[in-house]
Amino acid sequence: MDAYFSYPLLISSIVLFLTWVVFNWWSQNRKLPPGPWGLPFFGYFPFLSITHENFNAFHKVYGNVFSFRTISGNLMVIVNGHKTIKDVFVNRADEFDGRPLQSNLVAWFSDGLGIAQEEGEAWAQHRKFFLQTSKKFGFGKLEMEERIHDEIKQMIEILKKEKNADLHFSVAHAVNSVISQVLFRKKFDRDQTFVRIQKSMRKIIPIFASNINMIVGYPFDLMFLLFPRMRAVKDGIKEVRKFTDSAAEEQIRTHDPSFSRGYVDAYLQYRDELLAKRKPEAAFFNGM
Which residues cross the membrane (predicted)? Predict the structure, then answer.
């Protein structure tokens, strides 16, 4: 047996293997932004608690751009600061149009559709449409500011009248009413439907703000299968999707090509124009 076994050869093989592992890790990470070190496979995920507080601490150490790895070695790059974010997502948008194709919370919530999840040409087309269309509905103009002021005034009046009013509910109603006016040209009513939606959102929002939002890929899928809390979030997402799908279906059913009530109508009109002209871009606007 000893004739076929060599300790020096074994030790040399182990050293070479470890050298290869270290070099491979170094070559993958040497051009990345600085950031905290983590554990093998788990990355820095076990040390994340309240993510926005963690990120604030990292920002003080590493600057406006830093990176770390999460479970299964997935890379996270965090961008901070108004100027830096504008430079990345506005001035150099075409260079940063990639999106994670693996499972993640945003993709799970949106079926991988929309500006937040699409990438490449699909993302570029939707971004272009959004920037052109949003201006028509008051974005960046006095009209939007007045709309927000009106909602705030109504919210303040309600808070004055109601004793022990739920501030979270009132703020959420005001914010969602502004968004609904842009999308559908109608406001949210303070009825039981909105109460149910708000209860569902309260299940979802803490997850978006937690370290779970840092999990990507198959570990994310496993969490939804194994943890009851995540199943409750799934039920909340279903409730919200049910409402938004119903609102979108009503817009489609009552759509008048000669009149645009809001962003959804503008989307439908633009899609129909592309289809009528047989433009190749029409393929990117079949989400409705």
Answer: 6-26, 204-227
pLDDT digits (tens, 9 = 90+) for 175-202: 888 888 888 888 777 777 788 888 888 8
Instruction: Find tokens 């490449």 and name the residue.
Output: 120
Cα angle value 82/88/92 (rounded, 5°) = 135
Q: Is the pTM of this model over 0.85?
A: no
